[in-house]
Recover the amino acids of this structure.
C-alpha cells in the first residue's frame, strides 16, 4: 500500500469519527429532552374509541376484575368483559394523567356479571335458596341430622335481582315446609299402594253413595266395594296398569271389568253402561276401560269400585280418597 492512500484513509476516518461523535451528542440531547418532556404509557381504546391511559397494562388487567367484584356484590363469581380493551404503547407528555377508574366504569356498562348462590334440595325437591354456602351448609347439616336427605346445589344467574335474600330463619322455614309436604306425600303414596302396586289414577270423580261393608236391602250380603255416583257415560279409567281378566255382563254386577295388576292385586269396575276392553288385553294406568252405567243390580248410574287382594275384597275408600283428584 502506498503512502498517499494510507494518509487518505487516516483523513477520512478522522472525519467520520468526528461526525459520529456529533451525532451521538445530538441523540443524547434529543433523548434527554424526550425523557424530560415525555413518558411511555398505554393508550386504551374500547370498541375503537380512545377512553384514556393506564400506566401498567398488566396491573390494570389484574385489578379490574377485583374492583368490579367489590363494587357489585359478594356473590359475583365471574365477570365477562364484552369489549376487550385495546392497548397501544405511546409517548405522551409527562403531564398526561392516567384514568384507570374511568376506564373501569366505561367497561362495566358492557359486562356480563354472573352471580352465584345456593339452592337447598330436600329429597330431590328444591326447597329454598340462600346467598352463602355457610347458610346452606348449616341448614343441610340440620336436616341430615334428622335423617332426611338434603343437598346443596350451586346455582347462577346474570340478574342481580334474582339473588336470594332469605335470612337463615326464612330459608329454614321454607325447607321445613317442603319437608312436611314431602312427608305428607309419602304417607299419601303409602295409602294408595297395595302390595307394592300403586293405584294412582282416579277411576271416576263423583259422590260416594254407598261405602264398603254396609248392608242394604237391595243386596244379599254386605257391600264389597265403593259406589261412586256420576252421570251415565262418564269414562271409567283403570287405576293402574295391568291385564284385563274379565270384561262381560255378570249377574248383579252388570257389565264388569276386572283388571289384574300383579302381586295378587285386582280392581273391579261394575255396572258399566259400556265396556271398552276385552279379556286378556293389557292396559296402562289411566286408560278408559268402560263407561259409567246402571246395569245389573243398580238403582242409578254409578261405578261400583272394588279392590281385591288374592281374591279377598278390601275397603277401597282410603285408596279412593288419597288418589289426587
Ligand atoms: Zn256397589
Amino acid at each position: 500500500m502506498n503512502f498517499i492512500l494510507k494518509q487518505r484513509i487516516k483523513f477520512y476516518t478522522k472525519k467520520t469519527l468526528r461526525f459520529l461523535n456529533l451525532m451521538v451528542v445530538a441523540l443524547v440531547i434529543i433523548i434527554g429532552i424526550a425523557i424530560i418532556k415525555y413518558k411511555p404509557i398505554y393508550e386504551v381504546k374500547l370498541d375503537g374509541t380512545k377512553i384514556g391511559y393506564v400506566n401498567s397494562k398488566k396491573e390494570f388487567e389484574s385489578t379490574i376484575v377485583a374492583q368490579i367484584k367489590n363494587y357489585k356484590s359478594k356473590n359475583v363469581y365471574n365477570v365477562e368483559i364484552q369489549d376487550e380493551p385495546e392497548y397501544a404503547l405511546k409517548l405522551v407528555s409527562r403531564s398526561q394523567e392516567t384514568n384507570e377508574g374511568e376506564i373501569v366504569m366505561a367497561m362495566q356498562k358492557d359486562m356480563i356479571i354472573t352471580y352465584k348462590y345456593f339452592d337447598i334440595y330436600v329429597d330431590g325437591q328444591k326447597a329454598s335458596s340462600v346467598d352463602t354456602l355457610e347458610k346452606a351448609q348449616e341448614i343441610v347439616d340440620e336436616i341430615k341430622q334428622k335423617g332426611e336427605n338434603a343437598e346443596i346445589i350451586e346455582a347462577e344467574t346474570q340478574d342481580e335481582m334474582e339473588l336470594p335474600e332469605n335470612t337463615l330463619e326464612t330459608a329454614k322455614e321454607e325447607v321445613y315446609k317442603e319437608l312436611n309436604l314431602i312427608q305428607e306425600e309419602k304417607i299419601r303414596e303409602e295409602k294408595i299402594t297395595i302390595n307394592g302396586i300403586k293405584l294412582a289414577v282416579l277411576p271416576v270423580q263423583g259422590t260416594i253413595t254407598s261405602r264398603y261393608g254396609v248392608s242394604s236391602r237391595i243386596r244379599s250380603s254386605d257391600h264389597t266395594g265403593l259406589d261412586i255416583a256420576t252421570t251415565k257415560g262418564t269414562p271409567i279409567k283403570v287405576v293402574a296398569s295391568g291385564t284385563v281378566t274379565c270384561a262381560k255382563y255378570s249377574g248383579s254386577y252388570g257389565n264388569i271389568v276386572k283388571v289384574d295388576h300383579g302381586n295378587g292385586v285386582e280392581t273391579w269396575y261394575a255396572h258399566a253402561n259400556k265396556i271398552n276392553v276385552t279379556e286378556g288385553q293389557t292396559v296402562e294406568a289411566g286408560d278408559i276401560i268402560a263407561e259409567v252405567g246402571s246395569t245389573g243390580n243398580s238403582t242409578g248410574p254409578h261405578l261400583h269400585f272394588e279392590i281385591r287382594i288374592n281374591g279377598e275384597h278390601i275397603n277401597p275408600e282410603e285408596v279412593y280418597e288419597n288418589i289426587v283428584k
Q: What stands out?
A: The CA atoms of residues 8 and 84 lie 62 Å apart. The first helix runs from residue 3 to 37. DSSP finds six helices and 20 strands in the chain.
